[in-house]
C-alpha cells in the first residue's frame, strides 16, 4: 500500500529513486531532477513518535544530509494525521533504560532537523499536535491541508513542552502569541494557523502541499549552498547550543517530571479515554 | 465607597468573598464559582506606586498564589486611572533607606507578578503610564477601556526604564515597535494600543473588562494547572533570571541615576508642573 | 556637483553649515534650526564600502556624536544607489594587513552607528543590498524611495552575514521573516520592504525622504536626550556586547571564510559578471 503510494508519487513527480528500504517506519525518496528528498513517516496507526520511529527519522535525516540533497520535505503516509506526537506508551509506566533512550533520541532528531544544513519544509497532511507540531516548526516552511489542527498542546495533557520545543515555536510565532498558545495548549485550525503565521500556505491535496514545499525549496536553487547552510545554522546556533549544553539536565528534568505519580495518573486517564473512544 | 463598589461587584458576579481587609491600599476578592481573584489597587488619588502600595501588592499577589486561585485580575478602584506609575515623591529628594526599600519592593512585585504561577490579566480601567504599564504588561492578557492611554513614557520624565521593564514590554510587542516606543516614551491611546498589540481587547465598562479577563482566564479551565504554571515560568525564566542575577546592580544603577542633580532637578520641575496644574 | 547638491539642500532646508570638508567620501551638514545632521555617503560610483569610506563614516558618526546633534540622517549622493555594500575589491585577492583593517573598521562603524546615542534614520534613496542594508537597519527609522531594492543578499554572493548583521536585521523584522530572508539572500522591493516592516515609510523624492526622517527624529524633541540615549543603548546592549566580546573571533572567522579558494573563485566569477555587464 505504501509502496504503491510511493510509486504513484514517483510516477507523478518525475524521476525519483527510493533510497531506504531497510527502515520500515520512514521512507526517503529523492527526486533526481530537483535533488529534493521527501521523508515520509509511516508508523501505523498515527505516526506516534516512539523510540523506533525516532531512530528511523534520525537515520533518514542523516542520510539526506550526507547525500547533499537540495532539500527535505517531511510528510506522512497517513491520510489524516501528520504525527500524533510523542507516543504516550513510551511515557506511561516506562521502562528505565528505554525511556532514557527515547528522550535522548528525540533530542537527537530535533538537533539534526532544526540544525539541518539542508533546507527543510513540512507538508502537513493531517493533524499535528505536540511532537508533530515540534517536527513541523523545526522545518523552515509549512504547507498544511485544510480541516486539520496543529499546536503544542502539552499543557492539555498535563506535561511541559521543554525549552527547545519553545525555540522551534518561537522561530515561527511572535513571543506574545507563542507564550499564550503554549500556556493554553492551544490547537489551531488550518485557517487559524495560516492567519497567525504558524503555517505559511495551505494546499488542497498532499500532492499540492509537496509541490508548494518544493517551490519554496526551489527559492534556494541559485543560492550558494554552503553560505546558506552556515547562515541558517548561525541563525539557529543559540537555540541549538542551549540544548547541547543542557542535554543531561533536560533528560533528568523530563524523567523527574514524567515519573511523578500525578503525571502517570493523568497519562493513565488519558489512555483510558483513548481506549473508550476507540471502542465506540 | 470602595466597599460599596466591592459589594455591588459581588452582587453582580455571584458568590465572592473579600480576602484581605487588613491592607488598605489593595483589596482581593475571590469569585467562589470561578476561583478567580480580583486584585484592586485603591491608593488615592492615582494609585501612585509608593512603598506601601507595593508592599500591599506583593502581599496580595502572594496570597492569591498560596490560595491556588484559578486566576488573577488586576484592576483599579479609580474611575480614570489604572495606576499613574511610580510615585515621584518616592524619588524626589529621597530618604536613603526608604528609596532602597522602595526599589527593592518594586523588583519583588515584578518578580512575583511576571513570574506568577497563577494566570493573570489586567482590566485597565484608566490611564496606565510607566509603572502602570509595567504592571499591565506583566500580566498575560489586557482588556482596556476607551479614551485612556498606556505606555512606558519614562524618557519623557527624564528617567530610564530598566531592563526588566523592557522584558515585560517585549513579551507583548515586537522588538521594532517596543524599542521605538521606549525611546519616544510614547503613550498609546486605547485604539492604538489595540492595533499594535499592546492590549488584547477593549471593553466599554470596567465590569465588561473584568468579564473579558475572566473569559480569558477561563481558557485555562481544562488545562493542567501545574503543567501550565511550569510552562509559563519556563517561558519567562530568562527574563526573571536576569533580574534575579542583577538585583543589586539594578538597585545601585537606579540609585546612582536618580541621585544625579540633573535628574532631581527634572523631577522637581515636573512636580511644580503638577502642582500648578492641580491649582487650575 | 556634490557641493551644488549640498548647497541646494541648504537653501531648501534653511540654515545649515557644512561640518566636514577634509574627508572626501562623506559629508556632514547640520541644520542649525533642528540640530539634525545629514551624513551623506559620496564614494563614486556606488558607495562601495571600502576601508576609506568606512573610516570616513566612522569619523563622521563620531563627529555627530561629539557635537550633540539632535539626530543623524544617513543618505547617499548617488541618485540610484544608497550603498552597494562591502566593496568586493577589498575581499578579492586581499592584501593581508588591509583586509584586517577593513573588517575591523566595519565592526567599528556598526558599533558606533547601531549604538549611537544620537537618534538615527536612513533616507534610502537608492538600492541598498548587503552592507547597505546593514547600515540602513542599524538606524532607528527608514524612509525609502520607490523602485529600489533592499536586503541582506549575502548568501547570493556565497558569503555569510555575521551575527551582528543579523542583530540589526532582527531589530527590524520578526524572527521568521528575518531568517527566511537571510537564507534566501532575498532582495525586497520598496513596496515589499514596507509591507514586511523592513522600512517604515516611502517617499517620492530624496528631499521628502530626508524630511520624513527629520519628522521622525523630531518626535524626540521633547524627550530627555540622556534618558533616551541610555534607553536605546540598554535596549541594544546585548547585541552590541556580543560583538564587543567576539571581535577577534569574528575577524578570524571572516578571514578564514574569505580566504577559502571556493569563496575567492565565487567572488572572481561575480566580478567577471560585473565587468561584462558594465561593457554592455
TrEMBL record, chains A, B, C:
This is Enoyl-CoA delta isomerase 1, mitochondrial. Key enzyme of fatty acid beta-oxidation. Able to isomerize both 3-cis (3Z) and 3-trans (3E) double bonds into the 2-trans (2E) form in a range of enoyl-CoA species, with a preference for (3Z)-enoyl-CoAs over (3E)-enoyl-CoAs. The catalytic efficiency of this enzyme is not affected by the fatty acyl chain length. InterPro entries: ClpP/crotonase-like_dom_sf, Enoyl-CoA_hydra/iso. Pathway: Lipid metabolism; fatty acid beta-oxidation. The gene is LOC4816920. GO terms for molecular function: delta(3)-delta(2)-enoyl-CoA isomerase activity. PANTHER family: ENOYL-COA DELTA ISOMERASE 1, MITOCHONDRIAL, ENOYL-COA HYDRATASE-RELATED. Its main location: mitochondrion. GO terms for cellular component: mitochondrial matrix. It is found in: Mitochondrion matrix. It comes from Drosophila pseudoobscura pseudoobscura. Homotrimer. One of its GO terms (biological process) is fatty acid beta-oxidation. Keywords: Acetylation, Fatty acid metabolism, Isomerase, Lipid metabolism, Mitochondrion, Transit peptide. Gene3D superfamilies: 2-enoyl-CoA Hydratase, Chain A, domain 1 (3.90.226.10), 6.10.250.170. It catalyses: (3Z)-octenoyl-CoA = (2E)-octenoyl-CoA; (2E)-tetradecenoyl-CoA = (3Z)-tetradecenoyl-CoA; (3Z)-decenoyl-CoA = (2E)-decenoyl-CoA; (3Z)-dodecenoyl-CoA = (2E)-dodecenoyl-CoA.
Amino acid at each position: 500500500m505504501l509502496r504503491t503510494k510511493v510509486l504513484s508519487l514517483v510516477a507523478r513527480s518525475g524521476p525519483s529513486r527510493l533510497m531506504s528500504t531497510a527502515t520500515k517506519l520512514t521512507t526517503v525518496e529523492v527526486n533526481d531532477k530537483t535533488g529534493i528528498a521527501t521523508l515520509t513517516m509511516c508508523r501505523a496507526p498515527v505516526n506516534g513518535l516512539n523510540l523506533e520511529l525516532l531512530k528511523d527519522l534520525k537515520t533518514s535525516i542523516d542520510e539526506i544530509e550526507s547525500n547533499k540533497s537540495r532539500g527535505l520535505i517531511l510528510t506522512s503516509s497517513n491520510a489524516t494525521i501528520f504525527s500524533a506526537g510523542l507516543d504516550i506508551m513510551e511515557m506511561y509506566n516506562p521502562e528505565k533504560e528505554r525511556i532514557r533512550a527515547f528522550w535522548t533520541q528525540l533530542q537527537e532528531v530535533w538537533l539534526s532537523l532544526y540544525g539541518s544544513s539542508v533546507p527543510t519544509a513540512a507538508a502537513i497532511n493531517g493533524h499535528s499536535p505536540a511532537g508533530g507540531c515540534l517536527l513541523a516548526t523545526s522545518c523552515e516552511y509549512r504547507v498544511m491541508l485544510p480541516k486539520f489542527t496543529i499546536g503544542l498542546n502539552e499543557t492539555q495533557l498535563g506535561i511541559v513542552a521543554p525549552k527547545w520545543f519553545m525555540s522551534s515555536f518561537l522561530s515561527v510565532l511572535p513571543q506574545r502569541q507563542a507564550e499564550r498558545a503554549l500556556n493554553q495548549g492551544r490547537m489551531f485550525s488550518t485557517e487559524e494557523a495560516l492567519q497567525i503565521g504558524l503555517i505559511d500556505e495551505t494546499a488542497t491535496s498532499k500532492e499540492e502541499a509537496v509541490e508548494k514545499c518544493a517551490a519554496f525549496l526551489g527559492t534556494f536553487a541559485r543560492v550558494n549552498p554552503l553560505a546558506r547552510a552556515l547562515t541558517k545554522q548561525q541563525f539557529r546556533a543559540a537555540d541549538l547550543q542551549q540544548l547541547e549544553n543542557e542535554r543531561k539536565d533536560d533528560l533528568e528534568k523530563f524523567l523527574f517530571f514524567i515519573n511523578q505519580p500525578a503525571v502517570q495518573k493523568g497519562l493513565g486517564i488519558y489512555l483510558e479515554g483513548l481506549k473508550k473512544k476507540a471502542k465506540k
